[in-house]
Amino acid sequence: MTWTNPTDPVHNRRMSIVRSPDPAPGFAPIAPDAAGMPLYRAVRRALLRSIEEGKLPPGAALPNETDLAAAFDVAVGTLRRAVDDLVAEHILVRRQGRGTFVATHTRDRFLFQFFHVERSDGLREAPAVELLSFERIRMDEDAAAALATRAGTPAFQIENRLKLQGTAVVHDRIVIPAALFRGLTEKRVRERPSTIYHLYQSEFGVTVVRARERLSAVAADRAIARALGVPPGVPVLQVRRTAIALGGRPVEYRVSTIVTTAHDYVNQLSRPS
Fold first, then answer.
1. Which CATH architecture has domain 107-265?
2. Is the pLDDT of residue 257 over 50?
3. In what order do the strands lie in the sheet with 154-164?
4. What is the CATH number of domain 9-102?
5. Among 37, 59, 102, 259, which residue has the least CB neighbours within 10 Å?
6. Three-state secondary structure call for residue 70
7. Which of 155, 169, 158 is nearest to 132 (CA)?
């Protein structure tokens, strides 16, 4: 048996290699048999949990693929498939030559993922948003059902008029739970530097990742007609949206009324890979 002097510098160098810092701290190995699902989905779930818990906040960079795969004790291909899923859901974003990051809400992302109105000739641009009203309300039955709560729950209601090419095209009525957005004021809504989803994310930690929508044709009532400058009773498109945040929680109920005289509602569909 050979005795090693702990003060020997060569021994200390070896020990420092053994005790080197974890290149991807906060991520634990995933046991294949314990996952109860395909391994890439278990990795996806672990990454998503870290994002939901704030361990990977908006804008944070993921460790490189090799280190992260080693931390999860999976193949790089398995990790990459999990990351691909989250990129497809716009939860992560890849930036060429820089790495993979937790997605943040930007004007471009809003236009691409959540705004589907464009001119009939295909011109798509970000709308000019005009705040019409901001008030505290009690949710009606429709909003409460969409947000999985009880009618009468305290909420904020925001009404906006959206203009495209200088013409009023969309009226939005937005209802959000007051408990999730404590401290929200009309000033903060009016003076936000980017989209309202960016405001939710940056100031309240609420990250919208997807939405459910129902579309129907209706006749414009007097209030909508006045806001959009059309005759009462004119046919308009109504879109009822429930926005879903990380963790599957509904956080916003929005009713959008759209004048389709010169604009269309356009949604690009794709098959799951």
1. 3-Layer(aba) Sandwich (3.40)
2. yes
3. 128-138, 154-164, 167-177, 250-258, 235-245, 208-219
4. 1.10.10.10
5. 37
6. helix
7. 158
- Pairing between β-strand 167-177 and β-strand 154-164 as defined by DSSP bridges: antiparallel
What residue ranges do the domains of the chain occupy? Answer: 9-102, 107-265
Q: Go through the chain and tell me how many residues it has.
A: 273
Q: pTM value?
A: 0.81
**pLDDT (0 to 100) of residue 18:** 38
Residue 8's CB is within 10 A of a number of other CB atoms, namely 10
| Highest-scoring range by mean pLDDT, 42-56, 59-73, 135-149 | 135-149
Report CA-CA distances (Å) from 135 to 124, 132, 236: 31, 10, 25
Q: In what helix (H) or strand (E) does residue 133 lie, and over which residues does it extend? A: strand 128-138
Give the residue from 27, 111, 110 showing the smallest Cα distance to 66. 27
